From TrEMBL:
InterPro entries for this protein: Uncharacterised_pept_Zn_put
Protein name (database record): Metalloprotease
Provenance organism: Chryseobacterium limigenitum
Stretches that traverse the bilayer: 20-41
Annotated spans, Disordered: 1-20
GO cellular component: membrane
Basic and acidic residues: bias regions: 1-16
Coiled coil: none
Topology within the bilayer: Single-pass membrane protein
Length: 286
């Protein structure tokens, strides 16, 4: 992936500032739920963050100076943040809308979010309550070591673009509609899982649209970059995670889509570059 001089200025770096009160995950079902959230690259985690499966003793970590590598990572994320701003501003203007970028927050171990206490164990997530993307970069070590994905700089770009895709859903009202369905109580868990899959695959589609339009403008892609994004998407497919964690696949419990679906929708976004082609709900909920 080629770097540019773009910087967005919408990154808040909380690394090295010490912990802000952590939550400890208990055993049993709570652990399984959190483990799912960790690797699904999910959307709104507020129901998990506030659940009774977690206790919240206050902890404090020591402050530390950011290393040269830490600072380089911060610059890279800031650059990617700017790419997202430029691309989505363009897309929204083309469709007669105004884009407002999310804040991107880098943290280590724990921090506070509008959805509750964020933990590094959760992986990257988007919080619609404060319209912010939270990223602890240690997630990518886990993605590589536990799930075998080859992590590149563009892998990080894809993950960030997926989370920004959830922000796009919030700006377009999709997040609010899905939340209303969930709160209505009229739908079974299996039905809501299907809605969740459509939501997540749409975020993958938006990440593909972002990759296409950003490369057309900035010429950032190098050989192997798209493949690394696809590999990451497939690594966190529901079927792959279930096979690794429980030895079998239960499609009714899918919440983010299979490895094949995640690849399909990312590539559809990348191939078309057209946000109007991303109606996963109509396609998957017939």
């Amino acid at each position: 992936m080629k770097w540019t001089d773009d910087r967005g200025g919408n990154v808040e770096d909380r690394r090295g500032g010490g912990g802000s009160g952590g939550a400890i995950v208990g055993g049993g079902l709570g652990t399984l739920i959190i483990a799912a959230i960790i690797f699904f690259l999910g959307g709104d985690p507020s129901s998990i963050l506030s659940s009774g499966s977690m206790s919240s003793p206050q902890t404090q970590t020591e402050q530390r100076e950011l290393s040269a590598n830490d600072k380089k990572i911060g610059e890279m994320v800031d650059m990617m943040g700017k790419w997202n701003i430029l691309t989505w501003d363009q897309v929204f203007k083309e469709n007669g809308m105004t884009y407002t970028p999310p804040k991107i927050i880098l943290f280590t171990e724990t921090t506070q979010s509008g959805c509750g206490t964020a933990q590094s164990a959760m992986g990257p997530f988007y919080c619609p309550a404060d319209q912010s993307v939270y990223m602890d970069m240690s997630f990518f070590n886990e993605l590589q070591q536990r799930f075998g994905a080859q992590v590149t700089e563009f892998t990080i770009a894809y993950v960030l673009a997926h989370e920004v895709g959830h922000h796009v859903q919030t700006l377009l009202g999709t997040t609010q509609k899905v939340d209303a369905l969930r709160r209505s109580g009229r739908y079974s868990e299996t039905e809501m899982n299907r809605v969740s899959v459509a939501t997540e695959l749409q975020a993958d589609f938006y990440a593909g649209v972002w990759a296409k339009k950003t490369d057309s403008r900035e010429h950032i892609l190098e050989p192997g970059d798209i493949e690394s994004a696809i590999e990451a998407a497939q690594a966190v497919g529901d079927d792959n995670i279930q096979k690794r964690s429980q030895g079998y696949v239960n499609q009714e419990s899918f919440t983010h889509g299979s490895s094949a679906q995640r690849k399909e929708w990312f590539m559809k976004g990348y191939t078309t570059g057209d946000i109007r082609q991303g109606d996963t709900f109509n396609q998957l909920l017939k």
